[in-house]
Amino acid sequence: MKRQPVIRGFSLVELMVTITILAILLGVGAPSFVTYLASARVRDAATSMYGGIQKARAEAIRTNLPVEFVLTTDVPSNANVNGLTLSAAGRNWAIRVPNTPITVPPTYSLIDSRLGSEGGGDAVVVNAGLTNRLIFNGLGGTTAVAATVIAFTHQTLNTTCDLTHGVRCINVLVSVGGQTRLCEPGRAATDSRSC
Predict the structure, then answer these.
(1) Is position 3 within any domain?
(2) Does residue 188 lie in a domain region?
(3) Sheet of 170-174, strands arranged across
């Protein structure tokens, strides 16, 4: 008696069932993935600026000189460090220190800089209120009279920072003493992530 050959692999029906299941899973998971990516962009932009502020403060303490952390719409470089257009909505930032002896107008040396597109891309909106720069003194404190808040939101998703929406908003909070932290607006006061 002859044996029937064993057929290996997928049949067309099995392949179509598998593709249908994958399509359903992708359809269910895609909105969550978009929300996750948007939150990650906001977080990356805030973390980049947080790191820059910490670096400016550390440089001021190390050199015992005033160090400026500036928000700008320009692309910071050694060539334009003296003429940066400061903006409270600037997504780019630079750390600069005044050259000594101090001249009028002052000249600066560039310590570090970043483009906003490196962290969160074009989808992140920065709002520092009325502040376009922070000046740290040799003790690590700022020259501001009150705490500085730099708010990060997504350009199109959750622009009002509603907690029921999946995309998170992040604030960088800098106290007068120079302590810097990341926080989420709208959280309960008992939450460690609250502002």
Answers:
(1) no
(2) no
(3) 124-127, 148-154, 170-174, 180-183
